[in-house]
Design a protein that fits this description.
173 residues; protein yfey like fold; two-stranded antiparallel ribbon
Length: 173
């Protein structure tokens, strides 16, 4: 299960990067302002080591509170934002960051196995019914994903068959 989850995390992260890079050649004047909204009071956030990790929050504060990432750190030139994209791989989740106004900000959180769960109690391996029971019917369904949005955050559940394969918190468009 853990190996499948890690593969799903890698595929989801790569698809996010490629989707963002797909528009790199277009005129995106002002697009960063649309995507990089201030940290909000979204009801969707992940908690690790008693730290609430919120999309567009201060990534440096989060990684300091969480400590050294067990799976390492990686960065690459961003094709969606100015500066570098940064990836911090912890035991059961990955933080993806970007730079905004000289600060590292949190862009996405990807849960990578069933040892962690959302604050509403949903984890990888749970059934679709549990997601809907925990989050309600106000979701968008596309390409095998249930997408819940609040403020600047989308909470995405990738469903295969009737089972949660991946969970990601990401910046809404």
């Amino acid at each position: 299960m853990k190996r499948k989850s890690l593969v799903a995390v890698a595929v989801l992260s790569a698809s996010m990067m490629l989707a963002a890079c797909g528009n790199a050649g277009q005129n995106n004047a002002g697009s960063n302002a649309t995507q990089a909204v201030a940290q909000s009071n979204s009801k969707y956030y992940f908690t690790a080591k008693n730290t609430d990790l919120k999309i567009d929050g201060n990534l440096t504060e989060y990684t300091t509170a969480l400590g050294e990432p067990s799976g390492g750190y990686y960065e690459a030139k961003s094709c969606a934002f100015d500066g570098m994209d940064k990836f911090y791989t912890y035991d059961s989740f990955v933080l993806q960051g970007y730079q905004k106004d000289g600060q590292d900000r949190l862009y996405a959180i990807t849960l990578s196995d069933d040892s962690v769960k959302t604050k509403e109690g949903v984890r990888i391996g749970d059934k679709k019914d549990k997601v809907v029971s925990a989050y309600g019917n106000e979701y968008k369904e596309e390409n095998g994903q249930l997408i819940y949005t609040s403020e600047n955050t989308s909470l995405v559940f990738v469903i295969k068959g009737d089972t949660v394969e991946s969970i990601q918190y990401t910046m809404s468009n």
